[in-house]
Amino acid sequence: MGKGGEMRENKHEHQEEEGVMATDFFWSYTDEPHASRRKQILSQYPQIKELFGPDPLAFLKVTVVVLLQLWTATLLHDAGWLKILAIAYCFGSFLNHNLFLAIHELSHNLAFSRPVCNRWLGIFANLPIGVPMSVTFQKYHLEHHRFQGVDGIDMDIPSNVEGHLVTNVVAKSIWVIFQLFFYALRPLFLKPKPPGYWEFINVFVQIALDAAMVYLWGWRSFAYLILSTFVGGGMHPMAGHFISEHYVFKPEQETYSYYGPLNFLTWHVGYHNEHHDFPRIPGSKLYKVKEIAPEYYEGLDCYKSWSQVIYMYIMDRTVGPYSRMKRKVSTATKKSE
């Protein structure tokens, strides 16, 4: 990191010593770390390329979860609201969050070799989530990989408004509960993209499913799906990955992996350093990257509990929405857009 980066890092370290929350992002004056690490690993372990390609079981896994969640919703058509909420948090939230991360997997075309097939499966996986997001998510997520941390391009990074307002335990707790809304609305306000043909298909198919659910089984079944999405993306163990992936708890590291049991329910998205290093490898094989090239990952900070990450984020007075690494738009970045 250059001199300017060191000055910014020292500023944050001084704030951490005083227990004061940062008032600006961590600014990096180097390229994101994954491209260079990918090049180094492939030069040393070229066999990793054999892991590239679709997951042959992705279609089956998505289909089972979609049908199970829709079937559960129909069973709750006349259930009490407390029962619906309890089942949504303890069961449906895990299924819908699993589907959200299936959509993440499909955004990298990791179910089929043909992108159009992945897109259709993403629209199918979207159905129990209740709100159309699959196609739009892919547009912004691929930019997150290509331009990680780049100011004005990577919409995974919180806005200045979030940084200024979310400054204490109460505000951070509310932010965590509603973090799905921030992730969904942030790009629409900061970097809106005109909808395309596939967005309209996504919306049409989703509204058709939602309308059919309400018509055939009533509002409670539909509410179960929406509640499963909402609570599963908020104060929920699986939602800890939103924070654990890139929120900076250690200034010299901007991506963190999680090696815990919830990986089996989340398409192994916890292997996040490995995923950013090799986005063409499906989640089910990412653990092999760490096995083949352990020296590149064992020295990095990692997590074993997403719930602990949420607790750390809320309770640590020095951590907040500004705890993210950003970099300026370079000439090279502009040329690659």
UniProtKB/TrEMBL annotation:
Keyword Transmembrane helix set for record: yes
Main location: endoplasmic reticulum
Function comment: Sphingolipid-delta-4-desaturase required for the biosynthesis of delta-4-unsaturated sphingolipids and derivatives.
Record's signal peptide: none
InterPro entries: DES1/DES2, FA_desaturase_dom, Sphingolipid_d4-desaturase_N
Listed name of the protein: Sphingolipid delta(4)-desaturase DES1-like
GO molecular function: sphingolipid delta-4 desaturase activity
BP GO terms, sorted: ceramide biosynthetic process
Topological relation to the membrane, as annotated: Multi-pass membrane protein
Domain Sphingolipid delta4-desaturase N-terminal stretches: 20-58
Alphabetical list of CDD domains matching this protein: Delta4-sphingolipid-FADS-like
Pfam families according to UniProt: FA_desaturase, Lipid_DES
Transmembrane intervals: 58-77, 84-103, 165-185, 197-216
Localization: Endoplasmic reticulum membrane; Membrane
Keyword Heme assigned: no
Domain of life: Eukaryota
Reaction(s) the record says it catalyses: an N-acylsphinganine + 2 Fe(II)-[cytochrome b5] + O2 + 2 H(+) = an N-acylsphing-4-enine + 2 Fe(III)-[cytochrome b5] + 2 H2O
Keywords, ordered alphabetically: Endoplasmic reticulum, Lipid metabolism, Membrane, Oxidoreductase, Transmembrane, Transmembrane helix
Family: Belongs to the fatty acid desaturase type 1 family. DEGS subfamily.
EC numbers for this chain: 1.14.19.17
GO CC annotation terms, alphabetical: endoplasmic reticulum membrane
